[in-house]
Specification:
There is one protein chain. It contains six helices and eleven strands. The strands form two sheets. A nine-stranded mixed β-sheet has the order 1-3-6-7-2-8-11-9-10, sandwiched between helices. A two-stranded antiparallel ribbon has the order 4-5. Strand 4 and strand 5 form a beta hairpin. Helix content is 32%, strand content 23%.
Length: 247
């Protein structure tokens, strides 16, 4: 089978409602902590789908509930909240990260989005003291959101894939971009890691989140996310980010 390249894939964004200034994103990545966190945000904040992203010429999935299909990458919001969640259950391989980020960022620019926050788990060796959230953020995001925050900077390392592409664009544009990262374990979903991310984003954005039911929520979606994790494990190594992304 021929190897796909960056020229083989295109992402199309559709959105039905006015877009908020703030986008919070979670993607299908190792441990599924970011995806679990934004999924819980959608439930807690009672957000409704207002748009979606479709991948052309990329192996896809079509999730469904009670026989009803949905788009794997969705935009969700509500009228009285200045926040849109970008939730992607579709794994985006490393080689497709830039066109995916370009589609997202062209959409943010067209709709005057001011900042993007990415919730992410990172597969690094860690001790109990590291069970917390760190950040990697552009200067305008740090000054606008993180001054006085209890979230610590990630000491050093590398960003890969979609996270890297989004931050790279933020460094050269007016869009403020911040990655919230926490160590994750192999099990999916890593509920403790998702809680760390929710605590951080809830404090930074002053969201009234009740995280107590997250354990019960995770139990309900555990089988679905376990199957999604199996799909990630089956992804060829060339398509996945390096585990050395943070040190």
């Amino acid at each position: 089978m021929a190897t796909q390249t960056i020229d083989d894939v295109r992402f199309d964004v559709s959105h039905d409602e006015p877009v908020s200034d703030v986008v919070v994103a979670g993607f299908s990545q190792f441990g599924l902590a970011g995806l679990t966190a934004v999924d819980y945000l959608v439930e807690q904040l009672e957000l409704e789908q207002t748009g979606h992203i479709v991948a052309q010429d990329l192996p896809s999935i079509t999730p469904f509930d009670d026989g009803v299909p949905r788009h794997s990458t969705r935009l969700l919001s509500r009228d009285d909240l200045n926040l849109t969640v970008l939730m992607s259950e579709l794994f985006v391989p490393v080689w497709a990260a830039k066109p995916f980020a370009r589609a997202v960022l062209d959409w943010t620019e067209t709709n005057a989005v001011e900042e993007v926050a990415i919730l992410s788990g990172v597969p690094v060796p860690h001790g109990p003291e590291d069970h917390r959230t760190f950040y990697v953020a552009t200067e305008d995001y740090r000054s606008g959101r993180l001054e006085g925050s209890e979230v610590s900077p990630m000491p050093n390392g590398f960003l890969d894939g979609v996270n890297a592409a989004l931050v790279e664009r933020g460094m050269t544009s007016s869009l403020a971009v911040g990655v919230y990262a926490t160590p994750v374990h192999a099990q999916a979903p890593d509920v403790d890691a998702a809680l760390n991310l929710l605590d951080a984003v809830g404090a930074v954005y002053d969201l009234d989140l009740e995280t107590g039911p997250l354990e019960e929520f995770a139990e309900r979606v555990a089988q679905y996310y376990a199957e999604l994790a199996e799909r990630l494990e089956a992804v060829p190594e060339r398509d996945t980010p390096d585990d050395r992304m943070y040190m």
